[in-house]
Amino acid sequence: MKFGQVDHPELIDFTIPPDHPDTAVVLSQYKGGGVPNVYVGCAKWNRQDLKNFYPRGTKDELEYYATQFNSIELNATFYRIFPAEQYQKWYDKTPESFKFFPKMTNAVSHLRRLNDQVYGIVDEYLQVTSLLKEKLGTIFLQMHNNFNPKNWDRVVRFVEYWPKEFPLALEFRHTDWFTDETVSQELYHLLQENNMANVLVDTAGRRDLMHMRLTNNEAFVRYVGANHETDYPRLDDWVTRLTAWKELGLENIHFFVHQNLELASPLLSAYFIEKLNPALGCGLAIPKTTISPQERLF
Fold this sequence. Notes:
By secondary structure, the chain is α/β, with parallel strands linked by helices. The protein has a single domain (9-280), classed as Protein of unknown function UPF0759 (TIM Barrel). It is built from ten helices and nine strands. Strands 3-2-1-9-8-7 form a six-stranded parallel sheet. A three-stranded parallel sheet has the order 4-5-6, with helices on one face. Helix 9 runs parallel beside helix 10 (265-280). The radius of gyration is 18 Å and the shape is globular.
């Protein structure tokens, strides 16, 4: 994942900004207090990207991946809508507790950019995606970098059309969605009123995307490491922030680890889970890697 990549991550201020004041207001509506539902995963499971993760002789990468992680951010569905039998295979290869968090096809987000022609595609996408049944987590829609607030009416129509039985998170990347206060408040309230998550993207070159505004009882975080030693304290800071949100009422944490070079994603995930378990009282399995979480890759 090259988005937000920089040449010198050591020069970036990775401090997590203070919460948007309305985040506490949103979370106060929920009881919280117990152990949250936590899903941590990578973006891909293929051997080519996750080098040195699979033991020699592994026959099926997804089957093994699902023994180490409880979820996957399913980026493959961004590029095409797979046939129904493929979703059934994914379902059959994974344990009962596993969840998929698939990305909406780019035919909706990038090619047609939420215009009036996307709704048939959305229906087709959801028809096959629903075959994941109880293993289907939150679907997320990632808009193109140049999709700006001039397209506000398209966003409203899409949100109103979306079948509410499917959890949805939205990721906007154009700067104006967050730097223009009037625009950002309208967006946040639209998502909040429709119980949709506001994706948080933590990447080196786009700190403006760290808006720290939750719009429902879900923290959907896409963390992009820099293949640099700064990746570790950044994850420590996320453990601290998620713990604070839990105390405010947060019940659902969906955290996906990316890297510019994805081979480090399982290692960073293991490090993160090892820190997160005692902080939140959850018992996620720590993925096995060729390097222990206590060792440093960078």
